[in-house]
Amino acid sequence: MKFPTTNFDAGYPLYGAKFIKDDTVVVAGGGGEGKNGIPNKLTVLKVSPESGFDVVTEVTLSDNDDSPTAMDALGPNGTVLLGCNENSAKITSGEGNKHLRKFQCMTSKGEKCTLKHVDAVDLDHSKSIDDYTKLIELSPKGDLAAVVSSKENPSVLKLVDSKTLATRFEIESPQEIKDISVLPQGDSVCFLTPHGVNIVNTKTGKIVSTLSDITEYNLSKCKFIDNRTVLVASTFPRGRPGVVLLEVDISTGGNPRITKKQIICHKYQGITAMDLNNGNKIAALATNSNDLLLVNLVTYKIVETIAELHAFAVTKVTISPDGTSVVSVSAANTVHLVKIPTNFETLQTDNGKLLQYVLLFLLILAISVFLQRNNLGIQSTTSEYLDWFIARPSKQSPKVYDFAGPGEEMSIRYD
């Protein structure tokens, strides 16, 4: 494998993850109400491909709480928003359910990060224990949060002031909201339905543009690439395997349009998580088969597939701010770190490398036939050339990337 990997057992099922620094990630999850011996936690981890994972700090939630179901964070001295229901008896009795919780990640100079609980609110006012916080995303500036509950008919997107946790706007959708993404500038939010892309103005709370009736695909995940383009991960309907990436241009006002479609593979029937880093031109997608796909955002080709990264469903992926690390988490209690070379954008795809092998083989075959037919005094036969090709000490053998230290260049050697 060309990308170094390492993993960590958190001791509890994981449902949220977010990098707050290049080497620091926040994860969240748990076993649910009553714990059953499995805690509900919010944990800050320092990550390194060489030394693995170190727990910086963590918060253990009440034994009576349900498990955290969604989380987002800004750092290193920013806000952490956690979706976590209180106990079922309190919810069903109508006493309220402060399911959106705010923590502050605080780091003094020369000291480790600490998590401080700041506030909690009940946004949904539901008496059903089946309703939970499904999606949370903070704006890059940290002043706004987009929050979606699992409750449907209608599905509701709430725009929340991340300082006061007061609801600014509620936007209803007759269809299930599958995913959300906040524009880098923070003035728009994209929400995805099974067959539609919708853009909301965060200052007015109004839907300003919609691209609907995309019936040829099942839309799964969305992320803004820049201030005018949304990347949408989708699959084919009716169980047909295949993953398709769509670029949607929202700069055309009320008429967003698909500007690019790319089938990246003919496998998989679902995408469970996605993140991207436009600086390093990388997208990371988790599939229903627990595989991790690393995609070049320039060519929209899969550079690497890491198969069966986790034993159970991959619930979240997050890419470090510098684009050199990908962390995925799973309900199997595991955190997995994949180190990404800084030259990821220039790496060849698996198909590209295969094509090189085929072309080299055909070239050698053509040269050997030419030499024999023209009787140029070469005694080797075609089969001997082929034997040499198969047995040669190839420079096309798997590459190993040596990651450089400060001030050094990364080197590439061949095994």
UniProtKB/TrEMBL annotation:
It is found in: Endoplasmic reticulum membrane; Golgi apparatus membrane. Keywords: Endoplasmic reticulum, ER-Golgi transport, Membrane, Protein transport, Repeat, Transmembrane, Transmembrane helix, Transport, WD repeat. GO terms for cellular component: endoplasmic reticulum membrane; Golgi membrane. Gene3D superfamilies: YVTN repeat-like/Quinoprotein amine dehydrogenase (2.130.10.10). Its main location: endoplasmic reticulum. InterPro entries: Sec12-like, WD40/YVTN_repeat-like_dom_sf. The chain crosses the membrane at residues 354-371. GO terms for biological process: endoplasmic reticulum to Golgi vesicle-mediated transport; protein transport; regulation of COPII vesicle coating. It is a single-pass type II membrane protein. GO terms for molecular function: guanyl-nucleotide exchange factor activity. Belongs to the WD repeat SEC12 family. PANTHER family: PROLACTIN REGULATORY ELEMENT BINDING PROTEIN, PROLACTIN REGULATORY ELEMENT-BINDING PROTEIN. This is Guanine nucleotide-exchange factor SEC12. The gene is KNAG0D00440.
